Amino acid sequence: MAEVDDVLQRTGLAGDVRVQWQGQSQPLAQMLARSQWPVADHALWRGGAQALADACTPLPHREYSIASLPGDGALHLLVRLMHHQDGTAGLGSGWLCRHAQPGDAIALRIRRNPNFHPPANDVPMILIGNGTGLAGLRAHLKARALAGATRNWLLFGERQRAHDVFFADELAAWQARGVLPHLDLTFSRDGSAQRYVQHALQAHADRLRQWVEEGAAVYVCGSLAGMAPDVDATLRRILGQDKVEDLRIAGRYRRDVY
User: Fold this and answer.
1) Which residues, in sequence order, are CB contacts of 251 under 8 Å at separation 6+?
2) For residue 252, what is the enclosing H or E element?
3) What's the pLDDT at 44?
4) DSSP string across 94-130
C-alpha cells in the first residue's frame, strides 16, 4: 500500500483516524485503499480526514472472466497488473495485485454470461485467445476434461514463452491425457518476427476447415483491440464470409472480448 502511505505522508493525516464513508466508520487508510481519489491538486487534499473521505468515490466496477469451476471451491482469476503512461497502476488490477491482502474481504458479484456458454460435450471445440483471455477458455477446458470431452483445440497468444505461459503444467497434463490433442502457443516478442494467434490459425487453415465441417464451435476470449478483429478477419478469410455468419447465427462462433 505504498500509494496510500505516500498520500498520508503528503497530507499529514494519520491512517488510523476514523472517517465515515459509504455508511461505515473505518480507518482512513483502509478507506483510501478501497476508493478512487480526487485529483492530486484538489483543495480537499489539504483539508481534514473527513473532507478527504467525502471527496473519494468507490472504485468503479471491473469485470474479469472466471478461470475456475464451482467444484474447485474457490474463484480463480487471471489478472495482469496494468500501468498507465505515467507508471501508476490501473485501478482494478492495481488494487487486486498491490493492495488486496490475503484474508481481505472483496466486494464482488458473479454475473452469468449466457452468450459464452459451452456447446454440448460431443461438439468439437476450438478455443482462441490471448493474454488474460485464457481464463475463460481454461474454465471451458476444465469442464470438458471432467466430462471426458476430448475434441479440443486451443490457440493461445502471449508475449514471451519464458514468462507468459499461464497454467503451463495444467495444459501439459491435458495434452498428455488426450484432453487437448491440439495446442498452439504463439509469443509475439520471441524471435525476430512478431507472431500472433491469428498467424497460428492461418497456419492450420486446413485443420480449421475440417473441424468446422465436423461441427466444431469456435470460442474467442481476450483483447477487443487487436486480437479479436484480427482473428475474425482470419476466420473469414479461411472459411468465407457466409460460413462465419452461419456459425455466428447458429451459436457456433462466440466471443467474450474486452
Assistant:
1) 119, 217
2) none
3) 55
4) HIIIII--TT----------GGG----TTS-EEEEEE
pLDDT bin (cut points 50, 70, 90) of residue 119 is very high
Q: How far apart are CA 130 and CA 221, in angstroms?
A: 7
pLDDT higher than 90, residue 61: no
Q: What is the CATH number of domain 114-257?
A: 3.40.50.80
Helix (H, G, I), strand (E, B) or coil at 67: coil
Contact present, 164 and 233 (Cβ < 8 Å):
no
Contact predicate 146/172, CB 8 Å: no
Domain ranges of the chain: 2-99, 114-257
Give dist(CA 120, CA 232) in Å, integer.
23
**129 - beta bridge partners?**
156, 221
The residues, any chain, with a CB within 8 Å of residue 14's CB and separated by 6 or more, are: 8, 28, 49
Q: At what angle do helices 227-239 and 205-213 cross, to 10 degrees?
A: 70
Written out in words, the top-level CATH class of the domain with range 2-99 is mainly alpha
